[in-house]
Every structure is written in C-alpha cells, then in structure tokens.
Amino acid sequence: MEATLADVNARKTGGVIPSITHRLSAEELRKIDAYWRACNYLAAGMIYLRDNPLLREPLKSEHIKNRLLGHWGSSPALSFTYIHLNRLIKKYDLNAIFMAGPGHGAPGVLGPVYLEGTYSEIYPSKSEDVEGMRAFFRDFSFPGGIGSHCTPETPGSIHEGGELGYSVSHAFGAAFDNPDLLVAVVVGDGEAETGPLATSWHSNKFLNPIRDGAVLPILNLNGYKINNPTILARVSHEELENLFKGYGWTPHFVEGEDVDLMHQEMAGAMEDCVQEVHRIQQETRASGKATRAYWPMIVLRSPKGWTGPKNVDGHKVEGFWRAHQVPLAGVPENPAHFKLLEDWLRSYRPEELFDENGRLIAELRALSPSGTRRMSANPHANGGVLRKALHLPDFRDYAIPVEEPGQTAAENTRPLGRFLRDVMRLNPTTFRVFGPDENTSNKLDAIYEVSKKLWLADYLPEDADGGELSPDGRVLEMLSEHTLEGWHEGYLLTGRHGFFSTYEAFVHVIDSMFNMHAKWLAMSEKLSWRAPVSSLNLLITSTVWRQDHNGFTHQDPGFLDLVVNKSPDVCRIYLPPDVNTLLSVANHCLESTGYINVIVSDKQKHLQYMTMDEAIGHCTKGIGIWRKASNDENSEPDVVMASAGDIPTKEALAAVVLLRERFPDLKIRFVNVVDLYRLVPSTAHPHGLSDRDFDSLFTQDKPVIFAFHGYPWLIHRLAYRRRNHNNMHVHGYREKGNINTPLDLAIENQIDRFSLAIDVIDRVPKLQRIGAHAKEEFRNLQIECQNYAYQHGIDDPYVEAWRWPY
Ligand SMILES: Cc1ncc(C[n+]2csc(CCOP(=O)(O)OP(=O)(O)O)c2C)c(N)n1
Ligand SMILES: [Mg+2]
Predict the structure, then answer these.
(1) Hey, is 328 helix, strand or coil?
(2) 254 C-alpha to center of ligand 1: Å?
(3) CA quadruple 353, 354, 355, 359: dihedral positive or negative?
(4) What digits encode the pLDDT tens for the residues 426-442?
(5) The overall pTM is greater than 0.85
(6) Where would you tag: which of 133, 271, 488, 762 has the fewest CB atoms within 10 A of its CB?
(7) Distance between CA atoms of 253 and 29, rounded to whole angstroms?
(8) From 109, 189, 191, mutation site for ligand 1 pocket: most ligand atoms within 8 A of C-beta
(9) How far apart are CA 806 and CA 804, in angstroms?
C-alpha cells in the first residue's frame, strides 16, 4: 500500500500532499470503511426499498418502491466526507457543521445523520431498528414524506442545495463571528460552474481569522453533472491547482478510486487541513493582527456513483454521468437489473453492519461524535436556538422633526444609517450590514463611524482618504449580490441578524436566492424543532423613480412582483414614504423573526410628512387616510386618491392640490399604503384587511386613482377580489424611460401629478362634464415641464420647490 500511495502522490504536480504521518491504522481503516458501507447501504436503500430494509429475506419486487427517485451519484462522496470529518471531530473535539452543495445527494447526508442517532431523536418513528429503517427508507422522496434534497427536515442542514451555487457563501455566512466553528462544505464540480459559486471563492478575503471561524471547502470532482462532464474535471491538474491558488486557497488533493487508499488519503488531507486551520487561527489570534490567510481546501477527485453498479446494459455507470440519479431503472420488470440491484445492495454486507434489532453495531456507533458535537445536532445548524434578540436603540431618537406635513425635505435613508450604526454598536458580534459597494451611495455611511468595511486584501496609501476600510471592519461589501445574499442567509440561519441594502434594479440578481430562502423559511416554520431565525431584511433603494440619470437599465421595480409569489406566511413588503416611517418600519423588521422583509425607500431628498408619533401610528395600521390631505370628512368622497411609495405619494398629493384648486367642491380622500399586503384579503395574508375595512377606506363604488411605486398590475393582482376593484386605476412604472429628469420620467409613465389629476377628471362623473378646461390646462403644464427639462436638463425649479399648501 505504501508504494501505491507514493504513486498517487507522485502524480501530483504540486499542491499539498497528504501527510503520511496521519495514516489510519488497519483497525481504523476497517472501521471507517465499514461505517461508509453502512452509509452507502442506507443511501441506496432510501432510493430503492420500501420494505425488507436489511435484506433479511431474498429481495422481491414488492420490496421495491414503485417510483424510483433520488440521486445516487453524489451520495457516496458526501457520506465519505461526512464520516472523515466525524473522525476529526472526535479526535479534536471540533465544533463543526456540514453543508452539501450538491444537496440532491441527500441520501449521502441522511445516511450518516440517521446512523448517528439524531434522525431518530427528532423523528421517533424513524427509530434505530428494522421498523424505523423501513419507515426511513419509505419516506425518502415519497409523497407525504421528506424531500430528496437537504431540505429543512434534514437535521444539521442549513443549506438545501436544491438550486446549486450558494454552498460556499452560505458556509462563510455561518462562519462569520463564530470563532470556534468549522464549516465543512462540499461543492459539486458542476455547481462550481455557476456564477454564484464562482464568485464566492473570494469569500476568503472577508474572513477575519481572529473573530471568525473557518470554512473548509471540499470540491468533489466527480467529473460529471447530469449528462455532461464538468469543466474543472477536464482541465489539467496544474490549471486546476493554479485556479485555486489564484483564488487564494491552498488546495489539498485527494484523488483516486481505490477505496482503502482513498480513506488513507482523505484522512491525511483532512487532518492536514484541520491542523492548518488551527495553526492559522492560533498564529493570527496570538498576533492580535487580522491578516488574510491562504486557507486550506480539499479537491476530492472520486468516481461519481462510487461503489455503485459499474456497468448497466453495456453502459458505464460508476465514474460516469449515468450514475447521477437512479443507476438501475425499471427494476421489478427487468430480471437483470433486479439481480444487479440485489448484488449491489448485498455488496455492502448489511448483516455485518447492523445488529439483530437493525441498529448500527456498537463498534461503529462509537465512531460518531456524541451530543451536540454531531454535525446533525450542532445548534449552529438550528440557529434559532442560539439566536438572541437584538439590543436595539430607541428608533424614536433618530426621528427628524416634522412640524407640518409636506413642508421640508430630507434624505430618507440617512437617519436609518445612524440607527443602523447604533444597532451595530450595541450588537458588535451578532449584527452585520451587507451591501454591494453601495452603502455610501445609499446614504447609510454613518455605520462606518462604528465599524469600517472589512478589507483583508492589499491596501494602498490613498485608502486612508475616505476608503473606510479595515481588517477589523464588520460591514461587508463586495460587488456580488449573490455572495452577499449567501453570506447574509448563512449568518441568519446560524442565529444572528443582518441588514442588506441594494439597488432596486439589481436586486433581481438574487431573485432565485430570494425564492430559495423564502421556501426554506416556509418549510422551517412547519417544523416544531426548528427555532425561528431572524428575518432577512432587504432595503431596496436607488429606486426606479430616481434612476432617470442612469437610464432604462436601472429602472425596474419588479422585485415586488416576485415577492408576492411566495408564501404569505414569510413575506412582508413595506413602502414607507418618509424618514420617520422608514425608521419605524426598520425597527419592526429588525425585531421580527421568520420573514423576508422587503423595504422600498429611495435615498434622495424627499418631502417629509409625519412626526414620529404619527409615523408609528401609520405604520402600525399599515394603511390609512391622511386627514390633512383629504377634504371628504363627514361626507362621501367623489374620488379616492391612493399612494404607495415615496415619489408616488408626492405626485399624488400634488395632483390633489391641482384638483382642489380647480374644483373646490370636489371631495377627495387620500389613502397612503405602507404595508402593501394590507391590500390583500385577510383570508390570503395575515396582514390583509378585512373586506369591511377595505370597503370603508376605498368605498364600494367610487373611483380610486392609485399611484404606485412599482408595476401597476401588482396592485390589481393584490386587490382583484375586492368589491371596488373595477374602479381602481393604478399608475405605476410602465417600462418607459431613459435619460430623463425625475418629473419627465414620471410623465413618461403617467404617474406624474398632471396624469393623475387628468385621470381623476376622466373617472369622476361630474368632472367628466365640466373638466375639459382643467384637463387641457394640465396637459399644457405637462408639456411645459417636459420642454423645460429638454431645454435645461433639469426639472423646472417650481417642481422641486413644491410644498403641500393646506
Ligand atoms: C442552478 C441550478 N441549475 C441546474 C440545476 C439542475 N441540476 C441538478 S443536479 C445538476 C448537476 C450537478 O452536478 P454537480 O454539481 O457536479 O453535482 P454531482 O451530482 O456531480 O455531485 C444539475 C445541473 C440545479 N439544481 N441548479
Ligand atoms: Mg459532479
């Protein structure tokens, strides 16, 4: 064996050769391999068997599932990695969690989780005996059972690995501010081709070895995806090694297919990596000076579907993409496949691995860590149990004075930055602010007074002039919305708190990450053993209506349309119109658990409407009549003017003024919406208004002109079941715009004051008869404003100077 090991090492052109001092003894090797056989047996059993779980009788077709589902291909390498980690957890009493990037290989994770007892503790019907194993097999990827990925039902999982690409960023999020934690993350070689994964290798420049834990990536180079080879498996060793060195990692290679040899290699590499991690941490911590480290990682080149059927019907399966899902299909009908399946299952010799009750034999049980050192029972992977509420300053202290509504202007996000600064100050190890290079642009830069941006790459002298960089910074800024979102999710799922601000148009970059997280939360909510984690707070700023200078590409308020697709149990949308409402909303969001809170607020100067007390009242209701903007009190309104969003609110108010000047008898009610889900029936969302309340606000039969921040059809979608829906006329973004002035952009999309006022004239019966002159006047004003913009490059100053006059 020595010679062969040397052969393998000789193949290497560089990198780190697993240390031969860390060889397994023959006894250790025998046991770890037996444990792995048990894992592989369970993985195959989950995919195929609904009865006769330990093959104590000859296999019959009625023992086999009618629908064969699951992914065999990645499973063996996942359990291989898992149990080699177990060995070191026991040896060094490591505090470790496990993430499976190729989460479709869940059988390779569920197996060890079951074998170490956690599964049965959480789900007593899946007990550690024959009956429990039967139930465990049957429920895998079975209607009414559990998913075929590392879903929230999987103890120890905080990464489903359904949509590929986020494993490394999730792992780093978990490691931040957890100095004692080791996050082992298996990365699929196919997964490594995705954009989010590719950019996430740079996370190593954001890990501070003093106060953060460590991430150990294990890139599983099994060579294949579903039907194709993987790029990284088909480049030269040198190129691969240079790639990872170029990303700042120190790759350790474990390559081969001979099982015994690979156990030795993996044991050695793991041991080297763990020791290297400890060395980096100890040295950096002793020095007290945070520096960038070249952290170790493992490249595990192993056959896809390792130990499974080698050839089926003349086709190569083991070590090829054909091993990806179910290697033997049509089993009951095909005697040859049937035989192959039985031989394959029996090749793991289950009779040697499980005792007469069907439990893993004691000798092997002793290999797994115990209690919360089991990766499946580590509290970091059920972060809600570790979560402590934030220590929040009183948000009222950040209020700005508002004597009269609509008289003064302020940047809506700037006081929020001061509030976040003090949240950071009070929660120095459990709160992070994330942003793609935009916190200053988004006017949140007060946070740097307490904590700079973490920067562990090189520094230049000029950075001292406003760079706000520091190796100890806690604000995370990298131009990858994917990586930030992944960090943020990992941080929250391990029990901490965060705030992510991003440009509205580019929040779409993380659309599907949002989807995945919303699904994770919705499923987790149904699992009593998962404690709630902090909500994911997303501030969408630099919004469509102030992207007139950046043009069409920067104008897209459609993220909200996506949000409302997701479970009403986990999504919240807020459109606070001014500083004080934004502060009240943000405070509420930071206190909440289990949601994704989306807050839309522009960063530019906007009119201020509410004192802090009024703001709190308005945000508590989520929707309300603005008395000072209404003149219908004690009478029936002729029209309801509604708004949601900062700029739409101002334009709607200006439209009210235009109308009241021309038609003093016109009764207008002004309704502002902060909590968008108020529009939905109470039966469809916990925040929904009852029909009675909705009818009383919006009337049953009067026209409603609604100025909305986003795409207009979203309001119709939310309110279509309301009695007065036919009378609702929504103005919003209609994909019109380019380089404009703010008012010109509003006019293009017909959300400006003139368009709104004209719509009122068109919809209110009595104005239809008398409103022609006013309409003409508004149209003329609109043209004048546009001409002014085209001539001077700015809006007519009178627009900027507009104030609420009553
Ligand atoms: C972003 C994304 N695209 C496509 C898929 C569909 N898909 C599921 S598994 C898979 C192949 C994954 O290959 P790899 O990461 O190498 O994992 P392996 O199965 O080889 O362990 C693909 C393309 C997906 N889950 N996520
Ligand atoms: Mg692969």
Answers:
(1) coil
(2) 22
(3) positive
(4) 999 999 999 998 888 88
(5) yes
(6) 762
(7) 19
(8) 191
(9) 6
